[in-house]
Design brief:
The chain has helices spanning 13-24, 57-71, 89-109, 148-162, 183-192, 211-223, 243-251, 264-281, 289-296, 305-311, 319-332, and strands spanning 4-8, 28-33, 48-51, 76-79, 116-120, 168-173, 175-177, 195-199, 208-210, 229-233, 258-262. It is α/β, with parallel strands linked by helices. The protein has a domain at 4-177 and 207-235 and 299-316: NAD(P)-binding Rossmann-like Domain (Rossmann fold). The strands form three sheets. The protein has a seven-stranded parallel sheet with strand order 3-2-1-4-5-6-10, with helices on both faces. Helix 1 crosses helix 6, helix 3 runs parallel beside helix 4 and helix 7 crosses helix 11.
Amino acid sequence: MDKKILITGASGFIGSFMVEEGLRLGMQVWAGVRRSSSREYLQDARIRFAELDFTDSDTLEKQLSAHKREHGGWDYIIHCAGATKCLHRDEFEIANHWGTRHFVETLRRLSMTPRRFVCLSSLSVFGPVHEKDYADICNDDTPRPDTAYGISKLHAEEFLKSLPDFPYVILRPTGVYGPREHDYFLMMKSVSRHFDIVAGFRRQDLTFVYVTDLVQAAYAALDRPIVRKSFFISDGNVYGSRTFSDLIRKELGNPWTIRFVCPLFLLRFISFIAGNAARLSRKPGTLNSDKYRIMRQRNWRCDITPAVKELGYKPRVTLEEGVKKTIAWYKKEGWL
């Protein structure tokens, strides 16, 4: 029988690519979604669906119990579900920490623990580390996240690590971009409209990973005899603050662009206003105080050597190639 895999957060940017890879590998793929989730990128007839509510432990237990009675458990789970945008800080904690906790505790209670549980965390769990010497962030560093998002992801990691026998692998990707992604798209849209913003005057080292490389890392973790470990994921390179937008300009045919270097104090004020406006409209926005702290951070280097050596992870898509593929998709879909 085909190996059974559940992808939570399957309707999202990263989750939908995880689903496609499972299908490509011939697995029996279950897409974990909310009832209200869009299924725009989940149209393949081979996809099976599991409606899961991570915010209510009682409802989740009923859903998983019903699934177990009818279909059994899963061999593997890739946990992508969570929140990257929220109106209030506590919503990150509910979605990213407590959602993960409810899910894992219910799996254990129902004897549905998979052979491997790959959890997508984030480089943001470490916060502003090595801001002076620009050294690679590594597992030996002490996490000190300064965003609600990073704190909630760290709490989810700490919960998994507190379980003595749970077969988790944690992946901490840096900035993930590619087709279907919305935040980096806004930068591309801005450049296409002849405007580019750089956050602050001080040196900023950035890292990126194309979505299919992150997918590759997740599936590499499934059958390796490695559990209870955490890995940073990037494309293995470090970029200046202008590199990404320069590649966007190149791919768009080098349109004339006004590049504004925004002082951090002004960016902080704009983010504060934008965040309050979002709360008044009750619609999460891209710019807020949490996002400001991310843009303020100067060092996003990370050490992917353990992922390369232990998972066999091999970044395949360069930033230039990834930007080209992404913009081609945006153009094809009418986004640009």
